[in-house]
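Quick check before the chapter quiz. The format below is the same one you will see on the exam, so make sure you can read both the input and the output lines.
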Amino acid sequence: MDRRDFLKRAAALGALLTVDMKMAGEAFAKKEPVVAKGAVAGGELVAVMGGEPDAMLLRMLAELGGISKFVKKGDRVVLKPNIGWDRTPEQAANTNPLLVGAMVKQCLSAGAKEVIVFDHTCNDWKKCYANSGIEAAVTAAGGKMVPGNDSSYYVDVDLPLGVKLNQAKVHKALIDCDVWFNIPILKHHGGAKMTCAMKNYLGLIWDRRKVHDTDLQACIADVNSWEKKPALHIVDAYRVLKANGPQGKTPDDVVTLKTLFASADPVAVDTAAGKFFNQVRSDITLDDISHIGYGQKLGLGTMNIDAMNVKRIKM
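Here is the expected output.
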């Protein structure tokens, strides 16, 4: 994408955060944060656009009350980015390493005892960790990478709300931690149509083949019903893989949008991200990304982002 095309795209996507657009949700059109009748107290959705990943993260956390609101001194913290593929950051198949490294630093600055980062990768885990740039970023920031490539790392948990799945094997790091953060990348996915916060849960579990073989969209929602929720879902939409996901094939599959979304509500943040994604993939709507609707039916969150305190920041 050349500079002129980028500026046109940035203007169009900036309008998504500031102009009354039906597809974007009316809440983004408000000049002041709005809490609608019936909204859950403290339910927030933040969208930041126009900066580098680390700078946008700092601004986002400030809008949410600071990292100390989520991480306390002595906490054991887990970050779960998408590191599923043996791809470079420019290929937009994995979470941006600058974002992950910055989040490690933030957690440690709040007094975290340790910050652990992992994923159950699809390609060779050592290559994914290295070539994504995430291992180097985490190590430099003072965090620790742990593998997720063996069933011995996982333990059974119940999914009492599950429709298709009532149990899954979740990585021990998540069982043992005090707080965790879900940090997916927003991108196209051949099966789920879009992968974001809810889909990123499949990297928490061991038996994801069963998920794909049963009912992918419904099972994504079922896995999200696990009782130990992340403090935040932080969505990386700095570079977005708009086609041929989840790995991508050519540079033309990637568009640079310089955006982050964050919320404690996985349904809401995926709804906002899905509307945003529709601006570059008009053929994919929220109806196509049906795991979001399944999540709402399970009571995991709301697709009505108008019923939230929505903050949008353009850097």
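If your answer matched, good. The longest strand covers residues 232-241.
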